[in-house]
Amino acid sequence: MRFRVFQIFAPLLAIWFIYRIVQKFRRSEVSCSEAATITLFWIAISTIAIFPDNATRWLALVTGIESNVNALLFLAIGALLFLQSKLYFMMKKQDSIISSLTRRIALDKIEESGVEMAKDLSATHNRP
Amino acid sequence: MISKEEIHICIPAFNEEPMIACVVRGVVNCGFSNVVVVDDGSTDGTAKRAKAAGAKVIRHPVNRGCGAATQTALEYARGRNISYLLMMDGDGQHDPECICKLVKKLSEKDVDLVIGSRFILQSVEMPIKRQVYNRIANVLTNSFCKKNYSDTQSGFRLLNRHAIEALDLHTDRFEFCSEMLISAEQQGLRTCETPIAVRYSNYSLRKGQNFNTGVVTSFNLLRHIFGRKKIMFNGAAR
Question: Are B74 and B167 in contact (CB under 8 A)?
Fold first, then answer.
């Protein structure tokens, strides 16, 4: 079996990223599910790189798409759209949280300045 | 009879340094002493000018949008047990003399929310583009409301205590105008409109929404409405 450049490069890259993610997991920087997902992703990339025809043919069989190239492309696009929409909703949630925090800070400042003014006023009244 | 002391005037403002003092003084000169400016992260001297003119200033550390500023005003009103809250723009568009019209309407009709409409009086001189944008916004908003409002984008509104407590707003930008009406109807609040006069200047015309922001506002409103569990069309749940 003759290996092309990407069939060597992609698995090496995958090994590097899997090593990195295992290190992060050991340092508790990522959760078990995150580590497992990223590891599976890079294993899939390596498998497709090493066995491009067989892997994509299997993908086409599973998805019911005739062309194995199209199957891979549609899967990749679908995955990207899913991640994009996830990021979008996360961003909107963060937006809402920022607004709530902004409101809380603004109203707390008003409360503090009201308390300080009341203290100053009572100090003025209590002066002999 | 509602006294002027019971009414808190709230002015959301973003970079309104040229006009804010004039607006605040105009309101104070009409006999309303409770003026609150919600400074939405202005980068100019809006807060300073508003304070110097006699307003209480609530300052957002960062700009979040007029919807967010309105929500801050509502939360402030809830926390202080404010009986009546009037919202108006900080660009000098709204005539403070018209506040009494809204107050009168609220008392006469015994409603919870009065909207000052620029379109009931046919004599309003509004640029054609703005009229078109407002009409489009009306069509969009009214499709989710039971009533047919003539000015869904008016920032001149008077709320009573019941409305202040009941309104549940979530949008941060210009879409809050529509959201407030839709939310008001869903909460069972009684609403009505009253005609107001508006003053357009080169300054105020530069403010507000343009075509691009209108498109984004419409999209945000639809996203907010369809993102909720129950979708209401013409006030009826589906």
Answer: yes
Q: What is the pLDDT of residues A1-19, one digit of tens each?
A: 688 898 999 999 999 999 9
Is residue B198 within 8 Å of B108, Cβ to Cβ? no
3-state secondary structure of B124: coil
Indicate the residue of A95, A99, A106 with minimum beta-carbon distance to B59.
Answer: A106
ipTM above 0.95, yes or no: no
Around Cβ B125, how many Cβ atoms within 10 Å?
A: 9
Q: Collapsing DSSP states into helix, strand and coil, what is residue A8?
A: helix
With beta carbons under 8 A apart, name residues in chain B contacting A103.
60, 64, 68, 71-72, 75
Query: In angstroms, what separates the C-alpha of B60 from chain A's closest C-alpha?
Result: 5
d(CA B72, CA B140): 26
Residues of B in contact with A96 (CB under 8 A): 170, 172
Rounded to two decimals, the pTM is 0.81
* Residues A91, A78: Cα–Cα separation, whole Å: 20
Would you say B136 and B210 are in contact if contact means Cβ atoms under 8 Å apart?
no
